[in-house]
Amino acid sequence: MKELEELEKETSEPDFWSDQKKAQATMRRVATLRDLINGWDSLTERVQDAIELYEMAEMEDDKDSLAELDEEARALKEEIDKRELMLALSGEFDDRDAILSIHAGEGGTEAQDWAEMLLRMYLRWAEKRGFKTTLLDKMPGEEAGIKSATVEVKGPYAYGYLRGEKGNHRLVRISPFDAGARRHTSFAKVEVMPILDDDIEIDIRPNDVKMDVFLSGGAGGQNVQKNATAVRLTHLPTGIVVTCQNERSQTQNRETAMKILKSRLYQIELEKKQAREAEMRGKFVKPGFGTRIRNYVLHPYQMVKDERTGYETGNAQAVLDGNLDPFIDAWLKMQVGKSETVTG
Hints:
By secondary structure, the protein is an alpha+beta fold. The protein has three domains: about 1-85, Release factor (Methane Monooxygenase Hydroxylase, Chain G, domain 1); about 100-200 and about 285-335, Alpha-Beta Plaits, CATH 3.30.70; about 205-280, Double Stranded RNA Binding Domain (2-Layer Sandwich). The chain contains eight helices and eleven strands. The chain has helices at about 1-10, 20-60, 65-85, 110-130, 160, 250-280, 315-320, 325-335, and strands at about 100-105, 130-140, 145-155, 165-175, 185-195, 210-215, 230-235, 240-245, 290-295, 305, 310-315. Strand 2 (about 130-140) and strand 3 form a beta hairpin. The radius of gyration is 24 Å and the shape is flat.
């Protein structure tokens, strides 16, 4: 409510529309906050009405009305659960589309195969939600799997839902690549960033970016095109490397790569800010991907467990097939102080 009041005050300033891009971004944020608040106000009215009707029906011993109100109570509980999740999706960029990157950890073929399994998992999850995905870049593994992949995910609150997936994912299984059928542990790193609008200013100096072009690689080592359209951008001050080979033209690939670079640089600054705030509060948390967030065990038993929320399930295959919502919901609930250790 306080943020909405401040933004509405800002929109009434005489020079508010002097910066069109910033004004449009502010108006989108105002609309998002109004919808959120109006939804809670409407739900509050429904709860109050249900309480009054229940008290009347109980006094009159109206069993039919009481049965109907039991149905309403269940519906209200479901709506409250959904609204609680939306509280955790009220961040500045949560309603944006997302860029998701997967990087194989150390371990060669094992880790690269695991990275490809994660890519399949997230693509399946997005498909189940009706989100649109575009594979922007994919670097095949040496024998199997992938070294890395970057995917654009478009859909309502895509970044808000995915941002909790950032971190290291650990797999324990009998290796299909080990003739001795021994158990192996593999790691892959997931990176999630919001797709930023043009109104977000990130200073990238032309001299700080080195651009290389190369042929877009296709399946089986074939080239998608004879011309060098794929683009690799290296941000010299940070060492960040971004590649894109999805588009048909070099110009389009460069624009997409710059968009990804912009999001990564913003994410770095955001994590630095969060670390400073945490340190001031006396609880320093190192930003980045050093923390393992989830274990996927396929041998000697099946289990997927999130180390942050405690949520776990014995149906590991369903998770790998894209059934991620219980894990995502548990993490979102934890953000508003509602999470408990639960078992699926």
